[in-house]
Amino acid sequence: MTVWHVILIATAATLALKLAGHLVPASFLERERPARIADLLTVALLAALIAVQTLAVGQGLVIDARVPALVVAAALYAVRTPFIVVVAVAAAVAAGIRFFA
Amino acid sequence: MPGPDVDASIRGARRDGIAVGLATAAYGISFGALSVASGLDVWQTCFLSLVMFTGGSQFALVGVIGAGGAAAGGSAIAAAALLGVRNVVYGMRMRPVVSEHGLAHRVAAAWLTIDESTAVALAQDDERAARVGFWVTGLAIFVGWNLTTLLGALIGDALGDTRAYGLDAAAAAAFLGLLWPRLKRVQAGATAVLAAVVATVATPVLAPGLPVLVAAVVAVVVGWFDLFRRREAAG
């Protein structure tokens, strides 16, 4: 599988999901349990991606400059700093630690 | 019957849409740069923003490919698709909001169905303002997101060694920014913590990409049995 294959299949899947909401008769996901799972799925995947992106190097676990960068990012979100500023500061924290370490 | 109040609420919806559009467009720079840092080229990056056009899935796809390359393709597809499931729910809520003008109109509405366009539409008081809010927000973000994605991809391309610029940490911060507004409820917070632990523990034993998918099981279990609800009522 090339990167283009991955992109095309994933794009087809996400577009199909968007269309499904508008075209398929509503019923299943309007029930409480499926709607709750769909909601929590987003939360779980994002949290898992944060963990992997912060701690993993291939299949190893490493604590490095990414950890303090993420802590700073969390503190900034807590005081309602705009997304783009937080992302830039997090990059700067990690880059700064790597430069001086 | 359109009156001065309705006109005012439509103007308000239009203003909301453009403001949200401008704010969201800024994320596009980080997506473009991170995508190129993950090994996609500028064309692939722009294709995702044009056609997939749903930020969470786009970030997830490039995040998994960045960790495992094309070999983690299956996991990357699954992660993007699972993050796109919420758009089904949004689509069902937006169907009565966008007026029915045939198939092309419906496809366009589906394409623009994302977190922000749905949120702005649901925040309006009357039907026409909701419709205006949906379309203005969706179109403003579509234009802005694609322009800034290209800009970010070109910047990422010019940077070279992206780790030295902390772009790996920026990716984690970007995911946290997408997660943050969803953590208002105890159930969501508990799910996030458990999913992060599961993904971390699974990292040394599973191929790159799979830990993220295993963590999705946490959402199914918590959601199915409706766990962590009582403490929420108490707090």
Automatic annotation (TrEMBL), chain A:
The chain crosses the membrane at residues 6-28, 40-63, 69-97. Pfam families: AzlD. Keywords: Membrane, Transmembrane, Transmembrane helix. This is AzlD domain-containing protein.
UniProtKB/TrEMBL annotation, chain B:
The keyword Lyase does not apply. It comes from Agromyces binzhouensis. The chain crosses the membrane at residues 18-40, 60-85, 132-156, 162-181, 188-206, 212-228. Its main location: membrane. It comes from the Bacteria. This is Branched-chain amino acid ABC transporter permease. GO terms for biological process: L-valine transmembrane transport. The keyword Transport applies. InterPro entries: Brnchd-chn_aa_trnsp_permease (IPR011606). Belongs to the AzlC family. Pfam families: AzlC. It is a multi-pass membrane protein. One of its GO terms (cellular component) is plasma membrane.
